[in-house]
Amino acid sequence: MKRDAVYTKTEAGQREVAHRSGTLDGRHRTLLILLDGKRRVSELPPQMGDDTALAGMLGRLEALGLIVADGALAAASGPGPGAAAQPDWSERRMRAARMLNAILGPAGDGLAVRLESLGSEQQLPELLERCRRLIADLRGEAAVERFDAALDGP
To answer: Has residue 64 been placed in a domain?
Structure first.
């Protein structure tokens, strides 16, 4: 994470702020609102967390296509940052189910089954957010970061 980076909301990020899809928890939503295209990461309030937590939150917002760094907005007007490198939704749901089982074991079985039987891409973000909340509650933020990294891995 570059402390001097400036993040801007994409169109999707602006829609998220305006319409609250329910995909983001309160901290991620607050961070999204604070990213105004003028404020540097180093200028964010300390309540947003330490560098590790902040890097994870910024990475998640970026992966969701809600923000871009340092004026890359024009490049993000397509499918989203890194879209070509990200796996398709079906692969992401299977990765999520495997990772959920690896992190939570039997405690994640219910959500893992729902992920594996998911029939619609539109339901995936909500279900992934439920996974993140459960992982955070049971294993902490570091485990959530591992989960998110596994979703977009090679």
So the answer is: yes
**What are the backbone angles phi and psi of residue 67, rounded to the nearest 5°?**
-140, 160
Inter-residue contact 89 to 25 (CB < 8 Å): no
Asked if 125 and 145 count as a contact pair (C-beta separation under 8 A), the reply is no
Owning domain of residue 41: 7-77
pLDDT in tens, 70-101: 754 433 344 444 444 445 777 888 888 888 88
Residue pair 146/103 in contact (Cβ under 8 Å)? The answer is yes
Q: Give dist(CA 81, CA 52) in Å, integer.
A: 21
110 and 138 in a single domain? The answer is yes
Judgement on whether residues 52 and 26 belong to the same structural domain of the protein: yes
Strand residues in the chain grouped as ranges (E):
7-9, 67-69
Which residues, including other chains, have CB under 8 Å from residue 132's CB and lie 6 or more apart? 25, 144, 147, 148
Confidence of residue 153 (pLDDT cuts 50, 70, 90): low
